[in-house]
Amino acid sequence: MAGSPERFDIVVIGAGPVGLSFAASLAQSRLKVAVIEQQPLERLANPAFDGREIALTHASVRILRELGVWDAIPASDKSPLQGARVLNGSSPFALCFDSPGGSREPLGFLVPNCRIRDALFKIIRLQDDVQLLCGHSVVGVKNSETGAVITLSDGRQLTARLLVAADSRLSATRGLLGIGADINRVGSSMLICRVRHERAHHQIAVEWFDHHQTIAMLPLMEGVSSLLVTLRSSEADRLLAFDDDSFLVELTKRCRGRLGKMTLASTRHAYPLVTTWAHRFWAPSAALIGDAAIGMHPVTAHGFNIGLSGQKQLAHKIMTTCRDRHDIADPDMLQRYESRLRLSAAPLYHATNILVGLYSGEHPAARLARHAGLRLAQYLPFVRHGISAMLRR
Ligand SMILES: Cc1cc2nc3c(=O)[nH]c(=O)nc-3n(C[C@H](O)[C@H](O)[C@H](O)COP(=O)(O)OP(=O)(O)OC[C@H]3O[C@@H](n4cnc5c(N)ncnc54)[C@H](O)[C@@H]3O)c2cc1C
């Protein structure tokens, strides 16, 4: 182990989209920040396509714009979402979400996760006060009221007044801080790939709850969609092992020709689904952000949106504390951060989990309940408009 520990004001663990956004949000703070990432620098500098197309709300676009990230993403990678349809089984009925009053303002935008990461990385590289330490994972954390000591996999130690964990929904740092979490391994996986297809998508997303599978079709550029198939994990593994031709035949069959003739337009990816809710979002001299605090089920496409808003809240509170020359790890400030995030995220987190339960149940009563639920929502305009408004917020 070399020399005495290097000192930072803030050490962020995890250079995912939320960890990087948080470091970017601190740009004007003059705080000395380190971001630790287990992946090598080359992979962060050239993030590979990972299948995820992130549906961004207008609020998220505003935050990314403030950070200079939105304009750094090529226009060709921003696909407007003009509406959404929710289908149940073989019923022709569709619950529709559209922009109000027939306006052409999109509900949101779809952007590949790798493009968001790429743009954030470029912004961070311009920040003199942020040091990126890549290719190392965190193996030890000691925290107390006076600060945190972080041990890296190469034996190096860093000290921080505030440690911020952004190291994914299975955050090891959360465990090292002694913070428990409700972790639900859903038992299903999401298979994702881009497909080129015959029929036009008109920038309308389709979420289709079918028997033993859920299919989402997310409209990207003309004639191209991202196809997300949620299946039992064993079934997803079976499909993933197919060669491209057999995989495509299987997808076409499962989509029942909704998109017409299809060809594969990307690599395929699988995500075993896990939801998490940390019991606390802070500990002495430490805070959790992003999926390390709240790991949403992707069906409502809100994990990053919540993480982005949460990191902004924490960064804002830290900047205010700094300006007032108070402690940046003040427990009252961290408690306020937790309370606000809980209040804003809990309804969506729980509603999403209820939706997942309702729409993955195969019992005839569950099928009937979701059919009735869709009809009811269609005839309760405030429900549909409420959801559309939430997306456009
Ligand atoms: C299939 C799918 C589709 C999704 N679609 C949407 C969507 O449409 N809209 C939306 O808002 N959200 C969506 N999400 C959620 C979104 O992807 C996550 O909320 C977001 O990636 C969380 O970012 P994060 O930075 O907190 O964590 P992550 O993206 O998980 O990044 C964590 C980082 O920490 C690093 N790390 C982990 N452990 C360590 C360690 N010990 N030391 C150092 N580094 C470490 C990892 O290498 C990684 O770079 C989707 C998720 C999935 C799985």
From TrEMBL:
Keywords: FAD, Flavoprotein, Monooxygenase, Oxidoreductase. This is FAD-binding domain-containing protein. InterPro entries: FAD-bd, FAD/NAD-bd_sf, UbiH/COQ6, UbiH/COQ6_monooxygenase. GO terms for biological process: ubiquinone biosynthetic process. GO terms for molecular function: FAD binding; monooxygenase activity; oxidoreductase activity, acting on paired donors, with incorporation or reduction of molecular oxygen. PANTHER family: MONOOXYGENASE NMA2164, UBIQUINONE BIOSYNTHESIS MONOOXYGENASE COQ6, MITOCHONDRIAL. Its cofactor is FAD. Gene3D superfamilies: FAD/NAD(P)-binding domain. It comes from the Bacteria. Pathway: Cofactor biosynthesis; ubiquinone biosynthesis. The lineage of its organism: Bacteria, Pseudomonadati, Pseudomonadota, Alphaproteobacteria, Hyphomicrobiales. Belongs to the UbiH/COQ6 family. Residues 8-345 form the FAD-binding domain.
